[in-house]
């Protein structure tokens, strides 16, 4: 009975205005040749480094996922470019498959992350009922930078270690190629600075930054690059808004679910039960990571946010866990879930894209997943990695 009221309240939220705008911008970028330009620029800038092509794959996937907001989109768009390039550079095919598949979700912690945005919206809804300080979306975006960089760096060092016995030859640094790549991507390069600079300087709120991003991407891809004809815009807009509509319904259900939980006193009962068996904050975080990793293997990230945030956030606050830090832990766990069977979405998309079995892809991604778990432990138990820019 209250679902339609929750939908209205959500649609009236200033923060939620960012969701359709960022999503629309992401769909436009995925329909253009942004992926090609990003890979070329990354290769020209970093291909000379030890393990350069592996680092190119990590950087390209992280930024493309951040810009488009979709992990699966990254594998579809960049997979056809990166996998042959990695194999041609001398990396084993199985290693290359694992790298591309596991890197597809790296950008989920970078602005303008849709999962972090949704976590922030749900946390803000709960803050009104739990008398806790509101979680600012800007703080979540700042908090995601350190953990995302940590994941990229650890994966890069693993790539170097895994190929230590047969190092891949470096490519020569060519200034002309870098200049050409920069010139080709000249209209897209300012985009991260527009979003990050506008939000973090306080000049733009998140919804205004989303509007500027959508308008900028629309103008660049349609009128400057001319890669998206005007007749395609209605179709792209429809596809983006169908996704937004689904997320809006999910958020409305989450609000109704949270209302019920608070009204029934379930978070308090859950806290009393957990406190009886788990005394320390460290032990609680261990159990939390195990729970989220298992959920990530079975649930989509949006479903997990809906079900678990209203339950976990009130309990985590009782253990003294910062809600911003909790959001980073949550999304980092779900990021690993994208490559965890049986429902890891990246495994299925990569299986379709590369025509490989789920079993083969899981075996290829397993070492990378273990590296990400190590990063997750650091993110969990060193909150300063997330909060140093926030506090």
Number of beta-strand segments = 0
Total helix count? 19
Percent helix: over 70%
Coarse structural class: mainly alpha
Number of domains: 1
Q: H/E series, N to C? A: HHHHHHHHHHHHHHHHHHH
List its traits.
391 residues; mainly alpha; 19 helices
Structural description of this entry:
This protein has 391 residues and is mainly alpha-helical. The chain has one domain (3-387). Helices cover 76% and strands 0% of the residues. It contains 19 helices and no strands. It has helices spanning 3-11, 18-31, 34-46, 52-68, 71-89, 93-103, 114-130, 137-162, 175-184, 190-200, 206-224, 233-264, 266-277, 281-298, 301-318, 323-337, 345-354, 358-381, 384-387. Helix 4 packs antiparallel against helix 8, helix 5 (71-89) runs antiparallel to helix 6 and helix 6 (93-103) packs across helix 18 (358-381). It is globular and about 65 Å long. The model has no long low-confidence stretch (mean pLDDT 83).
């Amino acid at each position: 009975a209250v679902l339609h009221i929750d939908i209205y309240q959500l649609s009236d939220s200033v923060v939620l205005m960012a969701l359709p705008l960022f999503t629309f911008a992401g769909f436009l970028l995925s329909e253009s040749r942004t992926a090609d330009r990003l890979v070329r620029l990354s290769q020209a800038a970093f291909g000379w480094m030890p393990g350069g092509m592996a680092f190119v794959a990590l950087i390209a996937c992280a930024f493309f996922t951040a810009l488009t907001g979709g992990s699966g989109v990254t594998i579809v768009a960049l997979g056809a470019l990166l996998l042959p390039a990695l194999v041609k550079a001398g990396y084993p095919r199985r290693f290359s498959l694992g790298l591309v598949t596991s890197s597809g979700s790296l950008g989920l912690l970078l602005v303008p992350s849709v999962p972090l945005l949704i976590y922030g919206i749900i946390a803000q809804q709960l803050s009104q009922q739990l008398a806790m300080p509101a979680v600012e979306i800007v703080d979540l975006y700042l908090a995601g930078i350190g953990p995302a960089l940590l994941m990229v760096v650890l994966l890069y060092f693993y790539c170097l270690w895994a190929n230590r016995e047969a190092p891949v030859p470096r490519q020569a640094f060519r200034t002309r190629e870098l200049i050409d790549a920069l010139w080709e991507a000249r209209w897209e390069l300012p985009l991260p600075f527009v979003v990050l600079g506008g939000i973090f300087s306080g000049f733009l709120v998140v919804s205004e930054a989303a509007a500027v991003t959508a308008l900028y991407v629309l103008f660049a891809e349609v009128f400057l690059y001319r890669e998206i004809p005007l007749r395609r815009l209605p179709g792209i807009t429809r596809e983006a808004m169908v996704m937004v509509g689904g997320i809006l319904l999910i958020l409305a259900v989450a609000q109704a679910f949270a209302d019920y939980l608070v009204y029934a006193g379930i978070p308090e009962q859950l806290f009393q039960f957990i406190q009886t068996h788990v005394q320390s904050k460290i032990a609680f975080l261990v159990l939390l990571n195990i729970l989220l990793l298992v959920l990530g293997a079975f649930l989509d990230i949006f479903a997990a946010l809906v079900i678990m945030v209203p339950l976990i956030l009130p309990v985590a606050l009782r253990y003294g866990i910062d809600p911003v830090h909790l959001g980073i832990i949550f999304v980092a766990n779900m990021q690993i879930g994208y490559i965890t069977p049986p429902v890891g979405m990246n495994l299925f998309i990569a299986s379709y894209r590369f025509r490989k079995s789920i079993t083969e892809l899981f075996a290829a991604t397993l070492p990378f997943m273990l590296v990400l778990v190590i990063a997750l432990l650091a993110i969990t138990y060193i909150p300063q990695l997330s909060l140093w820019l926030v506090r």
